[in-house]
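Lay summary. Proteins are chains of building blocks that fold into shapes, and those shapes determine what they do. In this project we predict the shape from the chain. Here is one chain we studied, written as its sequence of building blocks.
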Amino acid sequence: KQAEKAVHQKKEQSKTKCRKARRRHINLVAEFNHRQRKNIWLETHIWHAKRFHMVKKWGYCLGNNPTEKSYRACYRAMTKQCLLQDLSYYCCLELKGKENELLKQLARICSIDTGLTFQDASCLSGRFEGSLNLYRADRYPEDMLGPVTFIWKPRDGSENRQLWIWVHPALKQDILKELKAIFQCSEPEEICISEPITASVQEEKQVEVVTSLGNKRKKEDKEGEKAVPVKKIIGDGTRDPFQSYSWISRTTGIAISDRTMEILRYRLIGPLSHSILTETLKAASVQTV
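And here is the predicted shape, written in a compact code that computers can read:
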């Protein structure tokens, strides 16, 4: 009996430790979520991790330099074809409110002496992206915060506008603090507390179920396909997931939202960039009710 028991235990261990069981999708997703709790992964992390030396900066895991000599290939793509770069680690701050109030307060943190401002006609229409340097309110030319890029959402006929400001993760907290100060946004509008906890608990439960299934693994997989955990983690490398990510002002009516890792950003360089975009993106059919 003891010998039969030992043989049975060896068989059970080999089944649970086989490569197919370790690389099952539900286990991989739970492992991805567990490994990026301290340093967030970009959507292209797996591709970069196989080809680049990864570094941990600004709360993210980023590709620093390639593992093989691909400089000639990148230069050839930039000059003759198309090269794509993942800039999703840049932080996106969204501003919503009346256009006059937005321009009035934003004029305090930039200057026309440096060049382009938020009031430029070409950028205000939403057709082009602009870039400028931000300063602390009414402190130009001293106390510079850093460079940013911005883009306005095209007008829809109402006085309310929407503005996206892209900042480097190292500058995000200082710029966000200054924006909340000039717009008097102190009350949190949305707080993300329960979702990360429930997601991690569900992942742990699903992993326990998978490891304890044994011979009935295939039958349970068909029934539990809908319960596959999501790869995305709420929060980013520059913000704690338990902090609020949206603020509103009762006096000015301006709302500031942190859209980091919700709006991805890619840069295409090369003469074929426009043709690749036109072939990749298809216009959606607008349905009016």
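What the prediction tells us: The longest helix spans residues 194-211.
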